[in-house]
Amino acid sequence: MNGETDPSYDATTFASAVRDGIGADGDQIESVMHRWQLTDSQVQGLIAYLARL
Fold first, then answer.
1. Which of 7, 9, 43, 53 has the most crowded CB, counting CB atoms within 10 A?
2. Domain assignment of residue 14, yes or no
3. C-beta separation of 38 from 2 below 8 A
């Protein structure tokens, strides 16, 4: 480890990761991660659900 941390996700970067496969750092996420066609409302619901876990 070099002491660096990965960038955090916010609602916008999370939506980009889920929909387009773009990580919080702007890099492409590996192609094995499925891309989902979610509405803004669905993304917000998913974020709310994950925050409760």
1. 43
2. yes
3. no
Find where tokens 């066609």 sit.
37
Q: Considering the domain boundaries, does residue 17 fall inside one? A: yes
Q: Which residues are CB-contacts of 5 (< 8 A; sequence separation ≥ 6)?
A: none
Kindly give the residue spans of alpha helices, DSSP state H, lying in the chain: 11-20, 40-52
Closest CA relative to residue 30, chosen from 40, 38, 22, 42: 22
Q: Is residue 18 part of a domain?
A: yes
Does 44 reside within a domain? yes
- C-alpha–C-alpha distance, residues 8 and 28, integer Å: 15
